[in-house]
Structures
1.
Amino acid sequence: MPPKRKVNRDSDASPSDDSVSVSDGSDFEGRPHKKVARGAGKKAAAVKPKASAGPRLKKSIKPEWNRDGWSSEKLETEFASKCIERWCLLPPYNTRIPDAQWKEYYLERKALDEINTEHSDKSKKIVSEELGQDTFSILRDASSSVAATIYGASQLDEADKTRIARTLRGSLYFTELWGNDEEGGGDNPRTVNSKTRLYSPFGLGTSLELVYDFHWRQFRAGERFSDFVVGQRDIEECDSKDPRKCTAVVKDSRSREKPGEFSVKVFDMNNSKIKGTTAQRITDFEEQFFGSSGWLSPLKMFNFLCAAGTVLHYNEENRSTVKQAGTKFKFFQGESEGKELQKSEAELLLQLEKEEFGALGKDEEVCMPQRLLLLAKKDST
């Protein structure tokens, strides 16, 4: 298992400290600054931009997944086998993980299945009435966005990408969600505090913790904040006694949350000031989570992390932050947003759901992650 990389996570670091600070060109209320053209009132000459070929995109490196201790053969110990079957885990499998740790993984993730079950008593922990939005619709849409990033990857053929994406679709969980809507109603929230966990689609036992906070009070100067933190997590950190425990953030002496030791603040917005992390820190997550290096571009990983963190899935006024934080990243050659395959896969999933569940009652309990694994389970039969 690749070692964790210790990172500098000072959210107040200057651009020279590996962060990139940009302005979104708007005032505190999100309105564009007015620009006054020189020579106003005179007939302006048309200016054509100079043609530019732009920098050549880098090539992706095809993942091999053949490290020491990794196997393409399914693990046969009791709880490793249960995990592979229940969550459709794909090769490679880490043969060095003891079954006792797979047991903790199994019990923890099974508990999250129960919490992420619509209409269940345990789901109340992730349902915010003040937010006024459907938790499970958000989870479904975010899971689809996670899958889409893999549909648009390069190097692997469509069958391999589809298998990985189908398992990922059912690997995202809410561990915490609270928010409230803006005054006057509507579906644009004033505040969102979200914590999610995404498990690797492979038998590596790894996962990501994602913490997304957003606050924007319309027409109130100085009340516009957002940050997004992502942390690595290995199988020995699984905790069946506290399955919702988030290791991406810790509390300081004033009980305020800050990034943990192996976490990265992907972006930080404070009114018109926006800071974004670097490509190196973004791509470090690929090695830990996917067990590959150089397969996914910095932009692909940035989009992947944002999707897993449910960023921009609440109709929140935060698009300019995400755009500015990600504008310096580029795709690799042959990568895309994966929208075409995402659409066809969504249609297949809906058909499978109809066949599997039929017309469900309004208050019938449904485990959303297990439901979203239907395509992956079809592959494994």
2.
Amino acid sequence: MISHFEPTIYPLYYGWFFTSAAACNECPSRDGLHLSKEMEQIIQQYYAFYLSMLEVPYVRQRLTSMCYLDPNIDRDHLAKFWLSAVSPSFGEPSGSITHVSRPHCTAFFSNFGRATGAIEYTNRSAVREGLLGLVQSICLEGLFITKRTVGLKVKLSGDEQMNLWGGLDDEPVDGYAPDEPRPKGSRAHITLALAPGISPVETGFDALRIADSELLSRPDVTHVELTEGIIREILVSTSSEESIFYYQFNTPQSVPLLYSAFY
């Protein structure tokens, strides 16, 4: 039994994690696969979606322009510009990113208890109960590529997930802050890959850029139809030529993720 007088050890962050082999040796999925193997296959599937986006000449041309790359670069070389930030690897493993993490959606960045609201978040009953062992089906709406990041847009739903969410949805982005609060969970995302020198925190800002464009009803620049959905070119702002390419799936995908904490 843990004494009430023992100090609380706060994690770096809380979130929903792709499960590891060690965590699920006894947890086969519906089709008999272990969840860890299933997660590897999911990462490979999203990498295939990523390559299909880069296969589109217009998308490739716009991204090479924004990233100041050779305009004649082919798909496979362009794909290597963004370095895998996760394990299992998103494409080829990266030797340049030293802090590779298991794919996850951060629910709250605690910074070892130093972040504003860390104690209050830790004391939520939903958090305390969730840390005892909770797997939830998390909805993935689409894959996005910017000059900074490659990530998955997450759609949280229901009280069980919202009660675990503590992300900073209303942080200003590019100097813009909405007059009204953004919908809860607007920042929810999973980082997959990063451009050289870019921090994973930027993926959350890119997710907010997509949310702001939709909240402001800003028209997309163009649409490209693919097998699993539509690639939307979203302007970051009306005063910028920078775009986000967002592969919005026809049918959002649901994956089982484990709520836990990273220390």
3.
Amino acid sequence: MAGSLIRRATHDAENPLEASLREAFNHQQGNLRPPFSLKSLAQEQYPRLNDAILFGILLEPRSAKTHIKLLHAIISDGYCHFTSMVTRIVDELYSKLVDSAKIQLIWVAREMVDVVSVGFDGLLVALLRQIVGGDFSEGNLWLCSEMVGVFLQKWDRLVEENPLILTYGLYVFLRILADHGSLSGDSRLNMLKKLETEFCIRVLRERFDLCLKIGRDLVRLLQDLVHIAEFKSIWKDLLFNPGEFRVNDFKSMVKIYRLKTQSLYFSLRITPEMERNLRFLLTNVKFGNQKRYQAWFAKKFLSCSERETLLVDIARFICCTCRSSSEGADILPRWAVIGWLLMSCRKSYIEANFKLALFYDWLFFCEEGDDVMRAEPAILLMANSIPKYSDITNALLEFLLILIDNYDAERKDVIVNGVLSVFHALLMNGVIDSLDVLAHSDALSPVLREMLKKLLSFMETSHTKELQ
């Protein structure tokens, strides 16, 4: 009987995926040792032998090179089945795997990059998603180190075969560097920060054309790293010397501001397990019955103070990747989850970053290219918090108005147009019936009310024909 790949308590049921792989391994034992059979495989045998080889690689590190030689010899589908099974293990089992199996997964990932297997990019994405923000445990730091090593050591192959994968790594390590940079750790953490910085700077300097594909959230991530000398230089060039990046049509930050960040990038900072639980909250839990589910989620994923930075990632994920349930009006809405997460912020800088994540698409909104539903949680949270939780409405609206004036003073006109456009789109798409709930609410402070009315007066002027 083969050993186990995962840690399991005495009374835990056997995992069906692991059980299937073990069964294949046990049945194919005779085919896994040299001399290998030269007979062609029957169609039904091929996937089972692939599964057996994979289980053997993860279970028997000393025999991994023998197993991989057999895999290379029998392959007939570009490693598609094998790579998809590795990816599935990462998505479904990674947190439960024994350490030796995790080490072997990274080894397998390197092998799949070398042979340019079908789906190797998806495998790298799956591994990147297992890097948890705000987690300084030895295992998580090890995974960070291994993955940044893969991206640096396999640079040429990645550039040649699928350069876009570099932007996925860049997004993850820019975000993780903000966490790691907050600590002055031991030599291992310092070396990790050095490697992460080396990779990010290389992508930004050598392939800025690819970096633009990340869109506006690239700027949001970079601004958290300007205290690091290498990134301060990047920031200065973005502002004052964009020609340094050698991209013909990149003349100013406005180019990046106008590029919407695609949903995949936000998924990179949410583990599959976390995503499943968030989607369950937003599709199955009735509004009013959410407290125990929220408490469980917080205990599972936000239990230590360092994990608080995850709140910002979750906010972007909910706003930009999730959609409100179509199952009925009684299902927990996104704005309510966002409100709960906002109230979970304990540190002032986390709260500020959370609000920025909530409003970020507002600042550069363009009705032709942006999705108004990304703005829905913020507007509905402000509207529905009146009158019972008007302090939330006041705080959010004040933050938005401060952003308009101060986020990028040199390009304030771009931001004003973006915010006015999002208000207009929210009205035109029926997300909110009227802005009077904000502009004429006695629950708002008089100063904020007047500032909002002044802002909205510009919208009335610029969109008069459309609103008539």
4.
Amino acid sequence: MAKRQVGHKMNAEIEERTVIKFDPPVSTQRYMEVCKILSQDATVEKVVDFGCSNGQFFKHIKRIQHLRQFVGVDVSYGVLESAYRAALPLAWECIFKRDRTLNIQFFRGNVSDQDSRLAGFDAVTCIELIEHLNEKDLQAVPATIFNFIRPKVAVITTPNRDFNVVFPELQGKRHWDHKFEWSRAEFQQWCSKVVDQYPSYTVEYTGVGDAPSDKYQDIGHCSQIAVFKRSHQSTEDESQSSPPPPSFPYELEFQTIHVGKEV
């Protein structure tokens, strides 16, 4: 739910000019929603998070007990170092162990490149990533995820431009590095093209970050989410396609482990 921070005396003008505060923060809502989606399938054991940034998502996903392997990918060594530190097991986690051992790796690389170590992962997440990509890299995303990795589920989130009317002082885009911000119609059009190209997948839409009042009608959520799921019965062409030759363009920068009870 979104709330407005206002003074004791409130009128319409002040309400329009005050800053939105999400409770919990919309970034936390995104992480919680993605984890909720991944938790629904106990066969999801290996997850790769493209654009993992400083590792805040890992603090949430590590609570999924059936997870066995987590890989974070980013182009920046600096944020990968921060993500690694965030992923190190805490003292109490060494005492009260997970049900299963969780192996964590952080690779430096680009989502447009295809690394054989990720082929066959159960789930892919791209949380507020695609809007930072240039056109060439964005065009390569569907092939990397749906043709090369071919996960059981893929979750992609991106800002909803329709929601920007809630931010009256916003000029331009929400972040200086955003190459674009799609409306719900534009995002769904892009996703529809993906499932047309890869028909073994279906897509559903959700989102997080509600509008602050009834004043804003039919603008959707602050962050829009597409959930792609692969059908159990792949097409004949996909099942007969030969795998590409091994390729390892990513650099493994950091790794750690959360030891489980079975060890």
